[in-house]
Amino acid sequence: MRFKAAMAAGIVLAALGSASAQADPLHIRLSYIVPVSNWATILFAKPELAKHLNKSYTFEAVHFQGTPELIQALAAGELEIANLGFTTLPIAIANAGMTDVRVIADELQDGVPGYYSNEYMVLKDSPIKTVDDLKGHILAINAFGSGTEVPLHAMLDRHNLVNKRDVTVVEVPIPQMPAELFDKKVDMIALPLPFTANPKVRDATRTIFTQGDAMGITQLGMWVSRKGFIDKNRAAMTDFMEDAMRAEHWYFDPKNHADAVQICVNVTKLPAAVWDSWLFKKDGQKGDYYRNPNGHADIADIQRSIETQLKLGVIKQNIDVSQYVDFSLVDDAIKRLN
User: Residue 317 falls within a domain, yes or no?
Assistant: First the structure.
């Protein structure tokens, strides 16, 4: 009898332990390259908007210097969601063999008419006036294969300029780029928001061309996860996406602008003047990037940019992006919000 009782008690405890394990929230790690421009750093700055946070899922923002590093992190299970760009998605699929990756949401798009596009900048007193004048100079990007390097490659190719023959392209972490330019260690920098909005940077530089000039609309960031992970954790991932889209819509609302600016100040320690005039606004080069309010990445433009990279020889294999898309999570999240 004692044995049966002990065994019954063990079964009950095991069942309770199993239930507890199943109830543990899903840990979601989302990467970012640039604070604020990438959602991860500000997504849950207002926790009251995240109804499921620390219930069905927990959240961690993880910093990387450039999107090429994200491929290895996603492959190694060190990220649940990677904010890959138009340059790294085809590399993940074709080179790394990650045919199970899925584009699950938009993050930001560069070069959409009426919205911001990354800038390739020189000092105001620089002798460089045009792209042709870049010959013989040192050009800084954040990482080879990144969303700023490939447009530079495209623009140089258009002007018959080749890295290591006509110019020297070097890697510099984005926050260090202005200092490197001011110290004349490099002659041109490829700079995104919010760094281009810094009054000190703006007053001291000229823009030679934009990413939009080089490649048109590009999917600078998109959320990418793996099919097996999505299938296994669909309920918690939908909860996460619901909270994420609720937060994004809050930021898009003009009445929340002052509060959004203060959040960015808190996160980056940069003054409000860096953010106030452009944050989440449509105003061309004086405004923000485009972010799709329904969370859909621009698949047609991703496809076009991949074909451009193929022509440039940046990648060796074309990819049909439509085979690697799953907007069901964000679509279900939007339905909940509506």
Answer: yes
Distance CA 169, CA 180 (A): 13
Which CATH number does the domain housing residue 142 bear?
Answer: 3.40.190.10
Considering the domain architecture, whether residues 131 and 106 belong to the same structural domain is answered as no
pLDDT digits (tens, 9 = 90+) for 184-228: 999 999 999 999 999 999 999 999 999 999 999 999 999 999 999
Sign for the CA dihedral angle at 45, 50, 55, 61 comes to negative
pTM greater than 0.85: yes
Are 185 and 222 in a shared domain?
no
Q: What's the structural domain count of the chain?
A: 2
Q: Which residues have C-beta within 8 Å of that of residue 304, sequence separation ≥ 6?
A: 216
- The label of the residue with tokens 């074309």 reads 318
Residues with Cβ within 8 Å of residue 295, at least 6 apart in sequence: 105, 106, 241, 245, 248, 327, 330, 333, 334
> Are 180 and 140 spatial neighbours (Cβ–Cβ below 8 Å)?
yes
Residue 258 within a domain = yes
Domain range for 252 is 27-110+218-337
What distance in Å separates the CA atoms of residue 307 and residue 321, rounded to the nearest whole number? 11
Half-sphere exposure of 20 (CA within 13 A, CB side): 6
Q: Are residues 276 and 300 in the same domain?
A: yes
For the chain, what percent of residues have pLDDT higher than 90? Answer: 88
Is residue 282 classed exposed, middle or buried when 0-12, 13-18 and 19+ CB atoms within 10 A define those classes? Answer: middle
In 10 A of CB 23, how many CB atoms?
A: 9
